[in-house]
Amino acid sequence: MEPLFVAQPLLPDLADFQNIVAEVWRTKTLTNGGPFHQRLESELERYLDVPTAMLFNNGTVALMAALKLFDLPAESEVITTPLTFAATAHAVHWNGLKPVFVDVLPDALTIDPAAVQKAITSKTSAILAVHVYGTVCEVDQLQAIADQHGLRLIYDSAHVFGTTINGRSIGSYGDASVFSFHATKLFNTLEGGLISTNKASDKADIYYLRNFGIKSEDEVISVGLNGKMNELQAAFGLLNLPRVPEERRCRSELRQKYEGFLTGLPGIKVQLKQPGVTNAEQYFPIIIDQATYGLSRDDIYDRLKAKGIYARKYFHPICTDFVPYRDYPVHSIRNTPYVNTVKSQVLCLPFHSGVTDRHVAEIKDVFNKAA
Amino acid sequence: MEPLFVAQPLLPDLADFQNIVAEVWRTKTLTNGGPFHQRLESELERYLDVPTAMLFNNGTVALMAALKLFDLPAESEVITTPLTFAATAHAVHWNGLKPVFVDVLPDALTIDPAAVQKAITSKTSAILAVHVYGTVCEVDQLQAIADQHGLRLIYDSAHVFGTTINGRSIGSYGDASVFSFHATKLFNTLEGGLISTNKASDKADIYYLRNFGIKSEDEVISVGLNGKMNELQAAFGLLNLPRVPEERRCRSELRQKYEGFLTGLPGIKVQLKQPGVTNAEQYFPIIIDQATYGLSRDDIYDRLKAKGIYARKYFHPICTDFVPYRDYPVHSIRNTPYVNTVKSQVLCLPFHSGVTDRHVAEIKDVFNKAA
User: CA-CA distances (angstroms) from residue A131 to A79, A178, B38?
Assistant: First the structure.
């Protein structure tokens, strides 16, 4: 059997893309907000149902730009979760701000609002919450806390492309939301990212942040970086976007198959079902409690790997395990932060349309033998 | 006549690129240092004749990473030139450092070593010099100053891809050199950049800066961002690199044609010839002295534009004209910094293989009528 990986990139039809390449060759417009870029940005604005959706070259650069959008004071504190990809904390740090890590909620694994409350100091300027694995944050509680303390609320939405809460787009919550279109994401532009906000008036400022602060041939009005996505990637995205629903449908079916044999197993928890929330179908995380189940997350990972099936210990390590943040505490309402337990229990199973019934049977076999 | 622009991107053969796209579709490897990325990086290491050449998604991100490489103290001062693209100053500022602007040398238009000396304070941590328009800096003097004061010396080499000084690669000078492969550059990867250094031991650290500080599946050892170039861009670059010599030859011929009618004109200066330096043929800048020539840079720009020929007032505005740096002085050995005079005199003429003899005749006509 071919090795099976946790993700497999969604690709446009090859001939369609080759035709679009020919079109780029004709126009000779390779970047700087060309026609494909403009079209993709418009389509994503519609898709995400937000007044402002601005493309970036990757999610990390988008996150750095989003954090810059609000003129947070230098060295002020940004409260975030350690259960996230490195980029979340690094973007804060690179921007001259201080990440402050707080615990996550059991089951949901999103940032714990009570822990956020506890971590707020006079230096706190923002909350950077992460909709992790597709599970959405406690958006109302977080907004209330932000409002009460005059904090900015920014979401890392890398895992929730297309999610809605009671019909409202995930990209419209808080002050800004940052998406990733990396190859591992359901919707991808090879590398890519996006900032969405609920205010049309943010468009200009985000544009400047993306393009060196250039307002016109004669004016540079702010400090910006280069966050531009090129035309080939934008065209790739344009062709990929219509393929998202079918890929998502396949993953929903796969989710049901996985849940079919996992839900009954003592010591295994599948992803929380959140009422009113559509699942973006980005990841399929499970929590393995060794005390009840008998085997550890790492045991299952190794047994799957022995069959050529690569699950992912995601997120392992967590941010507070990284060398630069090792001395940073995890603020929690518990004596022992829950995140320090769950980080050794979470496993993301292969989750894409390339996972066949035979793969599912192999995976089921590993879990059943273990139980 | 079709409008003629200052730059026209060099493109690979369409069919060759379409074939390579098919190869990417077969491997499904879209980014994260895939095979095309590895090959392009190796080829550029050879091309630039340096022990370390690390690809980035664009020159600005590469510059931000290069500045981070040396752990410059927060808010320390980085001496640079205002006669550069916005990215140079913005990268310094975004990284939490303070750009300090100093004057340029007459004729060369590169940073004035005497002005650098004058601007050094106890807070200075680095010199960020720019090889502007292809004219190289006073590399020996700058290195001596850096050594004397214990400063890092970083070069913005966006305009000097392929330049050598007495046979030595421009990418090997100073502590690091940053290239841009933006569409407007002779060698382009749509968007792209590179850091070169003269030390093989820098490779690992630059790799971490480019890829979130990830050392292994279990270790994140430093604060990094996402500077990864994707596979389509790397493949584009691989096919473009062999086309560079022919494009450069065309531009060298064009340079001779331009110089043929410009060299004699009173009040017009063409680019400095530097003994032992190969010209990268990135730009064709001229300096127009209105007092002698009769017409201003802007007059010539307008007259060319009226014919559909778009020259570029490059760099206009200069960094100290930008809103964020308006209050920053330009340190100079003169009463009036030379850069404040020359910024209204510099014009870059269209410079690429798409400029025909007919275009040259039209441009010549504008200059001759003016004289």
Answer: 14, 10, 33
Q: How many CB atoms lie within 10 A of CB A87?
A: 26
Nearest-CB residue to A226 (from B30, B61, B313):
B61
CA dihedral B33, B34, B35, B40 (to 10 degrees): -40
Helix (H) or strand (E) holding A54: strand A52-56
Residues of A in contact with B55 (CB under 8 A): none
pLDDT of residue B370: 73
Please, are residues A159 and A132 in contact by the beta-carbon 8 Å criterion? yes
Contacts of A233 in chain B (CB under 8 A): 230, 232
Contact call for residues B337 and B318 (beta carbons, < 8 A): no
ipTM entry: 0.97
Task: Tell me what pLDDT residue B371 has.
Answer: 62
Residues B266 and B292 sit within 8 Å (Cβ to Cβ): yes
Q: Which token pair is A204?
A: 């200009």
Report the 10 Å Cβ neighbour count for A108. 18
Closest Cα in chain A to B226:
A60
Interface test with B, best of A223, A240, A310, A347 (most B CBs within 10 A): A223
**CA distance to partner chain A, nearest, from residue B238 (Å):** 16
Residue pairs spanning A and B at CB distance below 8 A: 173
A85, A213, A228 member nearest B90 (Cβ) = A213
Phi, psi of A32, rounded to the nearest 5 degrees: 60, 45
Interface contact B228-A191, CB threshold 8 A: yes
Contact across the interface for A221 and B96, Cβ inside 8 Å: no
Residue identified by tokens 């690992």 is B204
Residues of B in contact with A324 (CB under 8 A): 213, 220-223
Cα–Cα dist B192/B234, whole Å:
9
Task: Express each pLDDT in B153-177 by its tens digit.
Answer: 999 999 999 999 999 999 999 999 9
CA distance B155 to B157: 6
For A285, the token pair is 């995380």
Structural domains in chain B, CATH included, are 14-241 (3.40.640.10), 243-370 (3.90.1150.10)
Residue A164 near residue A134, CB atoms below 8 Å: no
CA distances from A362 to A270, A271, A312, B282 (A): 18, 21, 16, 57
Residues 6+ apart with CB under 8 A from B263: B270
Please state the φ and ψ torsions of residue A103, each to the nearest 5 degrees: -70, 165
Query: Could you read off the pLDDT of A73-95 as tens digits, one per residue?
Result: 999 999 999 999 999 999 999 99
For A56, the 3-state DSSP assignment is: strand
Helix (H, G, I), strand (E, B) or coil at A126: strand
Give the bridge partners for B99, in sequence order.
B78
Q: Is A233 helix (H, G, I), strand (E, B) or coil?
A: helix
- Among chain A residues, the shortest Cα distance to B192 is held by A230
